[in-house]
Design goal:
Number of strands: 5
Oligomer: single chain
Shape: extended
Radius of gyration: 21 Å
Length: 136
Amino acid sequence: MSQNISTEQELNGGHAAVAEQKAVQVSLRLKAVDRSDRAIVSNVSAVHASSGMVFVDFGFVEQQAIDEITRAMRAGSETAANIDGRLECRIAMSVGDIVQLSRQLQQVLASVARKSSPLPAEADADVAPAPGASLQ
C-alpha cells in the first residue's frame, strides 16, 4: 500500500513553511471480520459522487440477461430500457482515497498489460449501465 503523506519543512529559520508530498510504502495486513473475507462476484459497477464522498456500487446481473441484451443490440432490435441486477456491495470513500485507488488500479493494469495482450475494446462495450444509473 502506498499513501501520500504531507510533511511541513521550515525554511529561513522558521519564517516560511512549505508542504512537501512524499510517497511512503507501508506494509498493510487486513484481517477479516465476520464474513468480510467472502469474495464478492460482480460484473457491473457504478460510481456516484456526493458531498465529498464517492460511492462505488458493485452489482451482479445474470449472464442470461447480458446475453439477451447483447443479441438484441447486435440484431438492431429494441432492448429493455431497464434490467434488474443485484447490489452486492457499496463502498463509500473520500475523493483522496479514490485518487489513491485509481493509482493502484493503474499500476495493476499496467502490470497486466505488460504480461499479456490488452483486452479488446468491445469487451467493455457489451453492457454498461446508463450514466447516473443505480443498481438498486
